[in-house]
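Worked problem 6 (solution included).
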Amino acid sequence: MTISANKVRLDAILPLRGLFLQNANRQIRYNAVHERGRSDSYLLTMDDRPVGYGSIKGREVDDRDTVFEFFVAPPFRKHTSELFRQLLAAARPQFIECQSNDLLLSSMLFEFAGSIAADVVLFEDHSMTQLVVSNALVRPRRPGDLVFPHGIEPVGEYVVEMDGKIVATGGFLLHYNHPFADLYMEVREDCRRRGIASFLLQELKRECYLAGRIPAARCDIRNVASRAALCRAGLSACGFMLTGEINPARL
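Solution. The predicted structure is:
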């Protein structure tokens, strides 16, 4: 039996990637890396028969040093470790980065890497809420709205208006795999800790569903305030982004 991993064009792995997305049924944080041309694709074969693929991205845009996607068709998964070794030999990455709810790649992470750490929490929608903030209105942003300076997130397509002033903005991005969307928001600094973030997230979830998308989110594992706001809006942690450095002694 001959196992190999060969660098190919993105379109060569798309049928297998379709199976990966179907099996995953969850938000894929780095889904857009492929279409933005920031990944290298490797087709995994056994006796010249395609059985899976691996994708490599850079921790910096111009690098290709991190395995971030890996899939083996179910009938061939008893050969998963051998296939992953071939991927590592062909691509020579230094790191593995994966979602903890990606059981296949996370198993390779723990088998082949060390110094494993988590930096981001992933969220999925869990329940509907009925939050209310007195005098607060969520509406689409209009031309001419005076929006406060944003320090982290982009200015969103929706705003929270209180007493005629914009105190928060947010929206949802479509860089995740369909039908998932990525919620984001930012609250004016002097208006925080008043429940506005959770109220806005609740309403963004509603708009997301009306647009035919499933809301999801992520935040830095150290951002206690954002994590709490997401939970109050009915989302719950569904995974973590894990990163580990490949240990040559395990190859």
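Discussion: The chain has a mean pLDDT of 96.
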